[in-house]
Amino acid sequence: TRHELVAYFQPQVSCVDSSVKGFEALMRWRHPILGLVSPAQFIPLAENNGQIVSMGSWMLKEACMQAIRWQEYQPPGAPLLRIAVNVSLRQFADVNLVRDVQVALESSGLHPQQLELEITEGTAMLDMQRTMDLLRQFKSMGLQLAIDDFGTGYSSLAYLKRFPLDVLKIDQSFIRQICSDKDDRAIAAAILSLAHSLQLKVIAEGVETEEQHTLLTEMGCDEIQGYLHGRPMPSDDLQVWMHEKYRHKAL
Q1: CA atoms within 13 A on the CB side of 113
Q2: pLDDT for 195
Q3: Beta-bridge partner residues of 201
Q4: Which of 11, 61, 157, 214 is deepest in the core (most CB within 10 A)?
Q5: How would you label 134-171 residue by residue, b for 16+ Cβ within 10 Å and e otherwise?
Q6: pLDDT beyond 60 at 190
Q7: pLDDT tens for residues 87-102?
């Protein structure tokens, strides 16, 4: 199935001025008969049979190569965009993960600071010592580190202080009703306050309306990701999207 995998990318933009800060790389499977298969369907299967490790390795390389290509489309002097790549549970436990990351960086020529690895809260909590060792190793390589789906696990807040993280991502389940549900709003506010007190940047996922964007900006959120600013798209569509984005900025 490797040659049937496709990398899609979703923009992550600044809350304040909607400028592009980076992209999250998302895997899709283009099946010859079924067409585009959702990751919700094939990722759990790939996790179970172990194929996710080689798929994840492919994704790392592909994402780094794409991030290098985007630089050609940026205006001179524009800040370098980062690429966020999810690391699955199986991948995180694999002994070759560090080597795979090194290979992806070296073969693409991407600056390590442009690569952000995302792990979920659940993955981080499974083996605290291993997580700590791996994250420190990645940090020493110059990578950015993010905790994905924050607020959905049952993690102790103590680990946040100990892990060398850069970013917390608020899960979209708290964002969906943020304008109408005071509990969701309180949870998002608490995550923002906690993250900022630890000098972490916060990205809200699943932002679909201007109302959500405005509220998150008022709450002090750093970046947002969601359909409001761009759906996940293949690299060709993304280049068109970036061209439009920068063209408008120049006008």
Answers
A1: 4
A2: 92
A3: 167
A4: 11
A5: bbeebbeeebbbbbbbbbeeebeeebbeebebbbbbbb
A6: yes
A7: 999 999 999 999 999 9
